Amino acid sequence: MEERSFGSAIRLFFNMSKSQADVQVLKARIDEGARIDGLHVCQLIAAMIIASIGLNVDSVEAIIGAMLICPLMGSVLAIAFSIASLDALLLKEAIKGLLLQMVVCLFTSTFYFSISPLSNQTSELLTNANPTIWDVVIALVGGFAGALGFSRKQEPSTLIAGVAVATALMPPLCATGYGIAMRDIAFSLSALYEFLINVVFIAFGAELVFISLHVPMKVEKTAEGIISKEELEKAYAESHKIRMRLIVCSVIFAIPCLFFSAMLVQRSIAEKGSVFETQDPYETEYTTKELRTVCPQLVGFQIGENHKFDEQNNQLQKRLVAIVETSSELADDQETMMKELIELNVSHLDMELEVRFEIAKTN
After folding, report:
1. What is the SS3 string spanning the chain?
2. With pLDDT > 70 as the criterion, what percentage of the chain qualifies?
3. Every domain of the chain and the residues it spans
């Protein structure tokens, strides 16, 4: 009894039907989001130009601003809703709308990057052309959150804007346009694949919500306007078959991401190991070069930690000792300048520093 009560409490706590909008309201929102008109296209072009400039000059602020006004999310949610409700007509319109928007976006970004005097690959361009498994997870969870907010009674604009930023639909399309403008086919395909990954898994996450909310399926009615039992059973069977196919296709579609992710992890581990192997906390190489510019007599420079136990205070003292070897004795002002250079390069270590000047021994 207690187990049943606990389970009921959990289901009640995570009940997604609370504050759910009416089906007619939800359908109206979906239709509105999927509708493509002149205003929609103008908004899309404006967002695409802003995003392209952001990627071109490495401006995260411009990219986020573009994503906030980008209307691509409407078509993706319409695709998810049409699959959940078995609405073939809506699915067809949503896909056509998404393809039209992709053409507009690619044309705009390709045109911009063709005339831009900046042709270098910025970090933001590279980021949006390297799909990983983390993009899949973000898109899946983002689509789930987006559909959840979209299905509430209150207007979902704020949450949808947040999901649009998190899932980043527009930047990969911009990166694709950059690749086309630079005639870099591999770069274009990689960026386009990242965009499609986002679309597929946003729609997948949103579909899970719509199915959980039991959105009514579009089923053929009899002449009297009645849905027969046979038609209903047929619709449920068809729905199950479509969803299973989508799951399998989505998993297969995400497989290349696993390879990209594995390569990213391997590169990260290699770079981390390289840093640990070559790290120089005392800036020895850089300091040596600087010292040689002000002191042609420099023979060698070394620096390291020196530990001494202070019996009077009963504690271990740690300090830096720098040894400067020269071929001949230095003037006082030259020693002072060199000491200041050394202190400047190790000041971040916040340790007591002793600098010793020695004349190198000759064999």
Report:
1. CHHHHHHHHHHHHCCCCCCECCHHHHHHHHHHHHCCCHHHHHHHHHHHHHHHHHHHHCCHHHHHHHHHHCCCHHHHHHHHHHHHCCCHHHHHHHHHHHHHHHHHHHHHHHHHHHHCCCCCCCHHHHHCCCCCHHHHHHHHHHHHHHHHHHCECCCCHHHHHHHHHHHCCHHHHHHHHHHHHCCCHHHHHHHHHHHHHHHHHHHHHHHHHHHHCCCCCCCCCCCCCCCCHHHHHHHHHHHHHHHHHHHHHHHHHHHHHHHHHHHHHHHHHHHHHHHHHHCCCCCHHHHHHHHHHHCCCEEEEEEEEEEEEECCCCEEEEEEEEEEEECCCCCHHHHHHHHHHHHHHHHHHCCEEEEEEEECCCC
2. 82
3. 19-218+228-274, 284-359
